[in-house]
Design goal:
The complex is a heterodimer of chains A (114) and B (768). Chain A is built from 3 helices and no strands. By secondary structure, chain A is mainly alpha-helical. Chain A has a single domain, classed as Helix Hairpins (Orthogonal Bundle), CATH 1.10.287. The longest helix of chain A is centred in the C-terminal third of the chain and has 32 residues, at 66-97. Chain A is elongated. Chain B has a two-stranded antiparallel sheet with strand order 1-2. The relative contact order of chain B is 0.05. The chains are: A mainly alpha (114), B mainly alpha (768). The interface between A and B is large, with 86 and 116 residues.
Chain lengths: 114, 768
């Protein structure tokens, strides 16, 4: 199981890195989202994997480490705020510059927006 | 120039001092001086020594950093007298003297300090002779004397250190008086050029006498203070033997320097006050007013008294300063004028005769020196500066070319380097921790996730497909959270996933639907390689981490959640209680992001397609009847669920974050199903106000604990019993969670509703 999760983290990281390196805003935002999945899973797995653990105290079961969970919970919400901010910035850049390249160049010939 | 050189030296010194502090464990000078042996035996000693000496040498204008000093003398006389003879350049010497007990005593110290001092002594003395500017001569002679003091400090003998201290005092007195005399001459004649200044004796005999006495002290003529310390210096160069068979070099070169110093002192006296007539001066010189001479008189008086009766005047001062320099008992030394016929006296004598000989043959020497083209160090310095600035501009231009894509690549490359290198030290990837067996469902879920990830990778240019497959990844991730005993995370991930996908879909309306093919195959291969590398490293780190046993601080939280925080859902208790301040910061960030987006959307020139990318017009049926009806029926149910999740959050999975997201999703569904106009007519919610009140409630809860005399965000809880309902718990953390709840709703809806509003006729007027 640990192997599966490691593979998932590695795969998501690779996809995220590749997308972040693209030249257009939308794939980059998608890449950030995928990267944050990978990072969240990584932090979460720092608490080690526990199946059928107790969600709350006093239920007589093996309790998982709550700290990574608390960290990841806020990370998910902040990650959403970051994604939202990035995508709105992309829309704004497109509106102001006429293209959606991440370098923020003004529109060049042969790159007319549809 | 002075600032650049001494500033660079200062930085080196700072680094050296930090290293000393590291070695000794204290920055207290008393401790540092007491720990000399520790510093000298430490591995960092060579670095400390070189860095500290760089600071000292640049400050005290030692060779090869001597060139800034003559250029800094353009300052008015009082400033340069102060600068050159007393304070500033002596600061470097003082530094060496102060750290002498901590750093000196090694061969390395001897070699570096002595040789630098010797080079400075010779270069300064030689250059001083050929300067035509009065102050130029004095400046180079200062350099030479600083070299002398440095040389003495480098000799690693206690007597030499005493001699150095003595010479510091003597140099300060005669050099300050000479600078002031030069200032008087400059003031009264309007020139400092020794080719023009001649025969001033007739015009200002008083000043001339003073200057001559000081200059003779500088030359080391008996009965003046300079003679005493120079004598000690000669004696010390004779006594040391660290250079082995070549030890004779030191006294010989010291005598050569003495010859030159006598020669330039003579030049100062003879060229200025005698030697023929004045050459077209702007003013007719005369004696300066009384008060300009008093300071010179005092200093020259000191030169005399110390020179004649050293034992009475200076012994006490010298003894106390030498003791503090050495941090131990001062060795025996005698301050008499007459030590009998010995080698140092002979050397002084040779220097005097040689100096007179050199000066009288100055015409030939000047002609010889004139063969070398005089380079202005300032120009060379400026050229070097320009080269450095140009080089850094080129590097800077390559790194910072304004391309975000380039920055991202550089950043990720360094991530790869900094993670791969330490990873190669990890020999055993797999730890001893027992692993969980993989079951069928997990394998299937992993395969689905992998397919979705690869689809995203391959079809990332078809944005809709990529978005849908990313949402599949998000769903599987929330399933993973659920599987591994994290229901709070699963709920949060699920609701955030919904909101994110809706947001990105909405955004896609304003962005191109397909990415044009722009990347070259080679850059795709490069990026794929980098991505594989980083992904592989991440997978290895994760695997290594998960198969090793954790060191965790969780036990504290698990033990105190119920007793201290009053809740059994430890994750929620951490969020609203233990780490409440963090959470407060995070909802603030959320609110700021919402407001930032609000500002970005305002006054945006919008690109509004009327058809999709294939040219097919959007569907006329904007709000399907089925969806509208169902969603309206769902709203109260969804709100009820979110209230339930919110209330139980402290003890069961749930809480403010999740409840807020569920409420937000329910409201967004109304927007989608019924349209912005429908919602506008019915909902009077102001989302900015919602964020503000959420933050106020959370902050207020924290501050309320001040009223009871507790620190910020201390929580309180108790149990109550009501008829029909039974026993229940009230906690101040619940109110804090209410603030979280409101902020999450406000921020989420502020972002989505405002973006959605742009698609309707209701958008701001100035939108094009």
């Amino acid at each position: 199981m640990e192997m599966l999760i490691s593979l998932i983290i590695g795969l998501l990281t690779a996809v995220g890195v590749f997308l972040v390196l693209r030249g257009r805003t939308f794939p980059v935002v998608l890449g950030l989202t995928v990267l944050s999945y990978a990072v969240n899973l990584f932090i979460f797995s720092a608490g080690r994997l526990v199946i059928d653990g107790a969600a709350v105290l006093n239920s007589g079961l093996n309790t998982p480490d709550p700290i990574p969970q608390a960290l990841v919970l806020t990370a998910i919400v902040i990650g959403f705020a970051m994604t939202a901010f990035a995508i709105i910035l992309a829309i704004r850049a497109r509106a102001d510059l006429g293209n959606d390249h991440v370098d923020g160049r003004l529109q060049t010939d042969g790159e007319k927006s549809k | 120039m002075a600032l650049t050189i001494t500033g660079m030296g200062g930085l080196a010194l700072f680094a050296g001092i930090l290293l000393i502090g590291q070695v000794v464990g204290s920055y207290n000078l008393t401790d540092v001086l007491a720990q000399g042996d520790l510093i000298r035996s430490s591995e960092a000693y060579p670095f400390i020594l070189i860095l500290v000496l760089l600071g000292a040498f640049t400050k005290s204008a030692q060779f090869p950093f001597h060139f800034w000093l003559p250029h800094a003398m353009a300052a008015p006389t009082p400033v340069s007298a102060y600068l050159h003879s007393a304070t500033m350049v002596k600061a470097g010497i003082f530094l060496m003297g102060r750290l002498y007990p901590a750093l000196a005593g090694t061969d390395m110290w001897f070699v570096i300090v002595t040789l630098t001092g010797l080079a400075t002594l010779l270069v300064g003395a030689y250059m001083a002779l050929f300067k035509h500017d009065l102050k130029g001569l004095l400046a180079y002679s200062t350099i030479s004397h600083l070299g002398l003091i440095t040389l003495l400090l480098g000799l690693n003998s206690k007597l030499a250190a005493v001699a150095a201290t003595f010479h510091i005092i003597n140099h300060a007195t005669f050099k300050a008086s000479l600078f002031m005399a030069a200032g008087i001459i400059d003031h009264e004649t309007g020139s400092r050029d020794m080719r023009k200044l001649n025969g001033l004796w007739r015009f200002m005999p008083h000043t001339a006498t003073l200057a001559m006495v000081a200059a003779l002290a500088m030359a080391g003529v008996p009965l003046l203070n300079g003679f005493l310390s120079k004598e000690m210096f000669f004696a010390e160069t004779l006594h040391q033997g660290s250079l082995g068979a070549l030890s004779w070099i030191l006294p010989v070169l010291a005598t050569v320097a003495g010859v030159f110093s006598v020669a330039y002192s003579l030049r100062f006296i003879h060229d200025v006050f005698f030697n023929g007539e004045l050459v077209d001066l702007p003013k007719t010189p005369h004696e300066p007013p009384r008060y300009m001479k008093i300071p010179v008189e005092i200093l020259v008086g000191v030169c005399f008294i110390v020179g004649i009766a050293p034992g009475i005047v200076i012994a006490g001062l010298l003894h106390s300063s030498s003791t503090s320099l050495l941090q131990s008992a001062t060795p025996e030394y005698s301050l008499a004028i007459w030590h009998g016929l010995n080698f140092p006296l002979l050397m002084s004598f040779i220097a005097l005769i040689g100096g007179i000989a050199v000066y009288s043959s100055r015409k030939q020497l000047f002609a010889f020196q004139a063969q070398f083209p005089e380079k202005d160090v300032k120009i060379i310095f400026d050229q070097w500066m320009k080269r450095i600035v140009d080089a850094s501009t080129v590097v800077y231009g390559k790194l910072e070319n304004g391309s975000l894509q380039r920055y991202t690549l550089l950043f990720l490359l360094s991530v790869a380097v900094f993670t791969t290198v330490p990873m190669s030290n990890l020999i055993n990837l797999e730890g001893v921790r027992a692993t969980l067996p993989a079951d069928g469902v997990s394998i299937v879920a992993t395969v689905i996730l992998a397919i979705a990830a690869i689809v995203t990778l391959i079809w990332h240019r078809k944005r809709m497909i990529a978005l849908v497959s990313v949402s599949v990844i998000g769903l599987v991730v929330s399933l993973i959270f659920a599987r591994f005993s994290a229901p709070d995370l699963a709920l949060t991930q699920l609701s955030v996933e919904v909101v994110t996908v809706i947001l990105l879909m909405l955004a896609l309306f304003f962005l191109p639907q397909i990415t044009p093919k722009a990347a070259s195959p080679s850059s795709v291969v490069r990026d794929l390689g980098l991505a594989t590398l980083i992904g592989g490293v991440m997978a290895s780190i994760s695997y290594a981490m998960m198969t090793h046993d954790p060191v965790t601080i969780a036990d504290f939280f698990l033990a105190n959640a119920k007793t201290g925080g009053g809740g059994t859902n430890v994750v929620n208790v951490i969020l609203v209680d233990f780490r409440g301040f963090d959470t407060f910061g995070e909802i603030t960030v959320l609110g700021i992001a919402g407001l930032g987006i609000y500002k970005l959307i305002a006054r945006m020139k919008l690109f509004m397609p009327s058809t999709d990318f294939r040219g097919i017009p959007w569907a006329e049926d904007r709000h399907p009847m089925m969806l509208a009806t169902v969603s309206r029926a769902l709203l109260p149910l969804a709100l009820l669920v979110s209230a339930y999740i919110f209330l139980r959050g402290h003890n069961l999975p749930g809480g403010g974050f999740i409840a807020g997201l569920i409420t937000a999703v329910a409201l967004i569904l109304q927007y989608i199903a019924n349209g912005v106009d429908f919602m506008k007519a019915r909902s009077k919610l102001d989302y900015q106000w919602l964020i503000a009140s959420g933050l106020l409630i959370a902050g207020g809860t924290g501050m309320a604990s001040w009223l009871f005399g507790y620190p910020f965000l201390t929580s309180w809880f108790d149990y109550f019993t009501l008829p029909w309902i039974g026993k229940f718990e009230l906690a101040s953390a619940l109110i804090f969670d209410l603030g979280v709840y409101l902020t999450v709703i406000g921020a989420t809806l502020l972002i989505l509703a405002n973006l959605g509003k742009l698609t309707t006729d209701d958008r701001p007027e100035d939108v094009v």
